TrEMBL record:
Gene Ontology biological process: sterol metabolic process
Binding residues annotated for heme, in chain numbering: C123
Gene3D superfamilies: Cytochrome P450 (1.10.630.10)
Cofactor (UniProt): heme
MF (Gene Ontology): heme binding; iron ion binding; lyase activity; monooxygenase activity; oxidoreductase activity, acting on paired donors, with incorporation or reduction of molecular oxygen
Residue ranges of the region described as Disordered: 111-134
Protein name as catalogued: Inactive linolenate hydroperoxide lyase
Phylogenetic lineage: Eukaryota, Viridiplantae, Streptophyta, Embryophyta, Tracheophyta
Source species: Hibiscus syriacus (Rose of Sharon)
Pfam families: p450
Comp. bias (Polar residues): 111-122
Keyword field: Heme, Iron, Lyase, Metal-binding
Keyword Metal-binding belongs to the record: yes
Keyword Translocase listed: no
């Protein structure tokens, strides 16, 4: 299926480009699923910039300004309350209605669906590529 999508959506007379790959729904889903299984950064930490409440599925935590926060990505990416059968690799998980799960993929200091800004420190180049794929 993956090969069929690439062949269908790529022009044989040109090299693959970042823009053409962005249109390949299954290819993107396989990349997201690979990153979910093997997050590029396993441990993230930061200090709270202000007091706030951090909510989980069943708890609320009072966080004070200056407290150290730490997140372990492999654990978060295998949350059974978010991902059905979280230990199974599903290449088409993020296709169609599954795209809603992209808001649960956190790397680059925010969800995959977020946009870089001064306040979230997401990678400014997360949606851009400058190399040609061959």
């Amino acid at each position: 299926m993956l090969r069929e999508e690439v062949r269908k959506l790529s022009d044989p007379s040109t090299s693959l480009s970042f823009d053409s790959v962005k249109d390949m729904e299954l290819v993107n889903s396989v990349v997201y699923e690979t990153l979910r299984f093997n997050p590029p950064v396993t441990l993230q930490s930061a200090r709270a910039r202000k007091d706030f409440e951090l909510t989980s599925h069943d708890s609320v935590f009072d966080i004070k300004k200056g407290e150290l926060l730490c997140g372990y990505q492999p654990l978060a990416m295998r949350d059974g309350r978010v991902f059905d059968e979280p230990l199974s690799f599903k290449p088409d998980w993020f296709v169609g209605k599954g795209k809603e799960l992209l808001s649960c993929l956190f790397w680059s200091n925010g969800p995959q669906t977020g946009s870089p800004s001064e306040s979230n420190k997401q990678c400014a180049g997360k949606d851009y590529g400058h190399r040609r794929l061959r």
